[in-house]
Amino acid sequence: MIRSAFAVVLLLSAALSFAQQPFLSPEQWGKLRDEANGAAPYENLRYLTRLHRVPATAEFDQAAQFILEKAREYGLSEVQSEQFPADGKTRYGLMRSYLGWKVEAGQLWEVRPQHLLLGDWGTDPIRLADYSHSAELETALVDVGDGSHDTDYSGKDVRGKIVLADGVLSRVQELAVIKYGAAGIVSDMPNQTTAWSGLDRTLVRWGHLEARESAGFAFMISKDTAESLRSHLAAGPVLLSAKVKAEVGPGHWTVVSGVIPGTDPGSGEIVYSCHLDHQRPGANDNGSGCVTILESARIISSLISNGALPRPQRTLRFVWGPEVEGTMAYLSRHPEVRKRLRADIHMDMVGGDPFKNKSILHVTATPWSLPSFVTDVGAGLAEVIRSGAARYAGSGDAPEAAVVESRAGEQGTRNLFLSDVTSYTQGSDHDDYDSSTIGVPSLYLCDWPDIYIHTDHDTLQQIDPTKLRRVALLGAASGYVYATLDAERSRSLLPFFTSRSEIRLAQLFEQAQQRVNDPKLAPDTAWYEARNLMKQGLTREAATVRSLLEFSASTNQTAATEKTLDDQVATFDAWIDTEAKARGVQGSEPKATWAAEPAAKKIPVRIGDFGPLTYQNDNVLRARLGPERVDKIKLLNSEATPLLNVQDTSELYAYEIVNFIDGKRTVGEIRDGVSAEYGPLPVDLVNDYLEACQEAGIIRWK
Q: Scanning 369, 525, 664, 667, which has the fewest C-beta atoms within 10 Å of its C-beta?
């Protein structure tokens, strides 16, 4: 394998230079670091974990009121709380609103063979699945296994009874309750899969029913409790008593916002986002993100008010609302804000102690459809904290650089700062900001894995105040860099960002070498895919560098930088060609794998409202085309594309296919973009997906 010596040198020099980040002066960094506090967000989190923060409920509004008061206390301006209809009808961009939920009581008892309380909403609300309906009955329990397939009900009479199931809850509701007439569900549905899945059998998973269905309730139990019930069923009938007093119907979402005003309203805004909702306790997911952006706001506001830092030119905006839905509602009501946004800092799960919940903090890159320098800023600042923490842990030197929380209040750990930079992943509000019709590049900070996510074990005890302090500093520093970046500073930073791009291209070349030699691909195909990977990577990196100057409205002076990147990729392409010819290819340039496909030449154009096509509680294609038509889309069909679905990449491809639409790219060119990002994809799958989008009124053909 051919290796690039200068790439290795770049990697080594980058590792050394990261500890001396180029974005802020040592004085600015020191002031931000010293102001950062981990005890304050920890105490704010203590309050939030007492609330069951389901969207469009009374306790969510309590949490919002708490944030509102703290934002005002911390000196933010224009602090307000807004309400948005959640009535199942109102649209926010492409997204349909969901519904509200009011609960008064919910209890589940085992009556026979033993008298045992299995769940009580009043003392442990996670036990009652969201959007459960009222019911009062005493009836038999029927085990239906997974419960998400018709065959699970073969030979079983579940009408009027309660089923025990561990399949996806909304699907069990669809079959057991709606189709076969069961009264309700007892669920031990497992959590997201990690290496630790199933080891703690006492976890109780947060469950959600489909609010748009008119019937059904569900109680959530642990694996241990489910095993006990199944053992009782093996010995004879089990009788349960369920009482639920709850109503699903129109409600409202509450969104809190506030700003730190900039000096130049015309230079745009930086938005900090998070989601305030989730189950009680919901400490890391996502109470931690909410209190941490609040702390970032306090840091910046305090330093500006006492004169330690100058007020930035760009306004800093902070938004707390329901996950994804709150973001879409807020941006829909405030198109003027949407137009002013230049970058987003999104925090979703940022406080987990890695030695308790196994979490690594990921600095997540923007998707390839939206190349941006914002990731490198966050990554560089995170490396400063990481290297300081590592030095302190190994030698005890420079404790201030480790950013440990040791002041009065909850003491933090002295752990390493375990963080990395990862490719784009979905799963939170950054999906909205990064989507093409909004186009606000996000610095997405997120813990993963988290073995307690969406369970009753996501408690304050899993949170490290030191990590809260470090991430609050990272958020404050990143936002201040974005808010103060001007044309002169942008030009001076070009060499730094160019070096980041060179490193990524060198890393991409290693992937291209594997691709050109992939024995599963025909030589001509492997050659094309390897060269396409470098071509798309070069496009991404050139756009990343340009984004820096465009951000600050600087004169475009990237010609020399782009030539440097062009020359680097030309060298890599020559090496790829050498390896391809060793496999017997002919010609000087590879031919597109889709060149003979007429559909590949079509050009899609985005039309209609803004936003991506999938949300937590809405799927635009499914809503507009119906489930039968969506099930025929090859990209999303597990039978047509089993590998993609096993790897859980179908939704990523779908997200980026739509994002790459710019009215200029052909279907073939869009195929090349997503294939470089996630792996080679047949062009007919891209075309088939876009045909469905055309039927749904999302695109038109040019």
A: 664
